[in-house]
Amino acid sequence: MFTTLISAIAFGVVLASVIAIASMGFTIQFGLTNMLNLSYGGVMTASAFVAYLLVSHGVSAWYGLIVGGLAGSLMTLVLGRFVLRPYARRGAKLFEMMMVTLGLALVLDYGLQALSHDNIYQFTVLQSSPIHLGPIVITPTQVILAGLGLVVFVGLELLLRLTRIGKALRATAAEPTLARSCGIRTGRVVIVTWLLSGFLCGLAGVVYIINSQSVGYSTGELFLPLVIAAALLGGAGSPKGAVVSALLMGIVTQVVAAFGQPAYSTVAGFAVLVIVLLARPGVVAGSQGAEAQVTL
Amino acid sequence: MVAELIESEDLKNIVTSPETNPAASKIMLTARDVVVSYGGVAAVDGVSFEVRAGEALGLIGPNGAGKSSMLAALGGQAKVGKGSIVLDGHEISHLAAYKRARLGLVRTFQTTSEFSDMTTFENLVTAGNGYLGARLSSVVFHHRLNSKADKQIAVRAWEMLERFDMTEKANTYGRELSGGQRRLVEIMRCLMASPKVLLLDEPMVGVAPHLVEKLVGDLKSIRDEGIAIVIVEHALEVVRALSDKVVVMSFGKKIADATYDEIVHDQAVQDAYLG
Amino acid sequence: MGAWEFYITTLVVYFAIDVLSAFSLNLQFGFGGIINLSFIVFQAIGAYVAAAVTLGPDTGQNAFQTYIWGASLPFPLPLVLATVAGAALSLVVGLFGLRRMRKDYQAAVLLIVSLIAWEVAKSDVHLFNGSNGVTGIGRPLGTTLPLSSLGYQWVYVVWTLAICIAVYALVRWLSSSPWGRALRAMRDQEDATISLGINVTALRLQVFVIGGAIAGLSGGLLVEYIGAWSPGAWGYAETFVVFTAMFVGGIRNYKGVILGTLLVPIIFLELPRFLPPIGYPGLIDSVEWIVIGLMWMGSLYWRPQGLLPEKRNMVFPGEFGSVTGGGSKAGFSLASLLRKGQG
Question: ipTM > 0.95?
């Protein structure tokens, strides 16, 4: 009982690292654009497939992480510039933007389904003999993945706090109009955000399949609710919040999986997002009808 | 045409007579020590005033003084932390916004809130149907009754269009109207709801300058019908023309409560504006 | 010839059921502004309930399927219960999911409700037999009517079309009533609608439950026709088909909604049956979903009002005098005064 709990928590921490990387990417994008981008999961899966293709051609999985991240950057930028921005330019409201990204998610997911012939592919790289830490049985790769989450978090915090572009990003996320009138080139900030959040999205996709050892077209979609929940729970635009809530989500879902039916771990993750959406203060529309605007 | 209709028996009772108002001195709305806070910061800090039927009160003050928050507290869009608001004898400070509206407190919004996918006429009948007519139960179970009410509403809506010179725009969608016309639709819609108190949040924003005078005239005639008006407005000439008295707010507090001519010479008010 | 007749009648039944779905969403989204991305769940519960109360009590001897609420109720009670189930589940979901919040958050909540319901129905064998679903559901009056199977097809066609027309009359009447006008007002300007004394919380819940009832009814009709129901039939993406049909045809225009249903779930999704097989099996399905996604995005971009846009409700001063002044006292309604005009 206690052993099950401890190892469930350990697996939860590993899963949390994956969620954290993805939701850090999601939260900086969401913090800037105010838009629930539901195509994020599709981009994750696509990047994971890119890494899978590389690795199956003999490239090291470590390069796969980098290339997957870059693929995520590129896709996010292209989709953001050439698909999402035209809608925003037409004055689409936030819920309309969400519906657009939902359509995009459908196109990406089923595009991947068509390309992957609707198969699930094994991805058993970087697997080595497990190590025993008391009651916990964990692989070195999982330890590395957990560490990677921490490294990404520290790197992102430093980037946002110390560099010029990071400060511009935070300023624009907080007050887009004010930032523009202060001479911050918001167009450039948006591009950087696409690239950065796309990189984290792609990286998370690869990390996810290293951890789960398989990749299929719906990999990202099923994972997305957890990512969004962590991002919203932690507060838009806050990597620290995303990490803390990712830890919570990871542990909750793994503990549910260990003690209940495995299928209910997904349900538990979904349920957390519903609760977060319903309960989080500040998500209620402004009383003066002043809804938040899209920044793109 | 409508004048003839009004002569008919069953319509007489719904026509309001604008001339004399016996309730002119009745207090319609009282705010006492109202406090509104957002996250610990008091946007409105103990403001009191009262408005009588047929009286217009101008609520002015520099940006961020808490005027809109005060209006939101009256209308039910913001939570009243402390204090009381009494509408024609009813304590309403903890009532939901739609219940306040049912008691006769109707408001406009800073950004125009006409129903953009409805025609002007539909905008008016929506308000005329009111909450009773729009109830699912009354639609389903009181069909015959509604058909009589519908007729009265249609006549009133058309009268309203004639009164404000908008009959030509009866079939125009809200989104196709000019800024001034949207304001007018909003105000007509409020009147269709037969209010006791009308809250106006910067009604002149987006109105073409040459129409401001006409709109002020319209508001005066509404006031003279016995409706109490509270108006938040930056254009002071509008406040001057319309208001019987003026409340000045600064940093959430009331700093003056007098007629317009008195407050322009008030040192505290001048200090507040010059900051 | 018989095979064709069978196929065409089947399509007409599907069409009528899809039109019902579109009416439900048109009321909820078109008029009420609720982005109900969990629509398919309410159709599914209707289907499951109708199936369970037709199949007979679950004795445990039928080991290949387990389900709750087993009974064998006579026609038309399964349909009635399907409608009630749709309404009841809508009430439950609506009570927590329709709180006043950002519209995109609300849509996300409803989408996830759809995912959760699907996962639960798929994993819990004791509810409705898990991922295998329930099967062997008899057709209503299938044994009592002395008909050939083709004859029965035509009876079912008439039956579904009759229900469809009745629901059309209902939603049309509701949407042109003062209640329908309040819905449109709420969709556009919630604060202003509240300021007219209208309780938007109740209004939103009402339209959600009425739409849910129609969805449940459509699910019941569907399962009584096809005789089986499983999670494979109601993935969250099925909701998008109904939305896309509505976008393509024209939101709030009933002719448009019907046209869109004819174009998207019937013609577009049926045509590939006649194509020679391309690529690996399942490729055509994937491509269909991609095109649904593209149509959804395209209609949001180019013609948000659809092929047949909503018509303007016109009032004419001349007629106005004669209608309101005339002798027809009881028959007057605003709906009769307002005529459909151009665009």
Answer: no
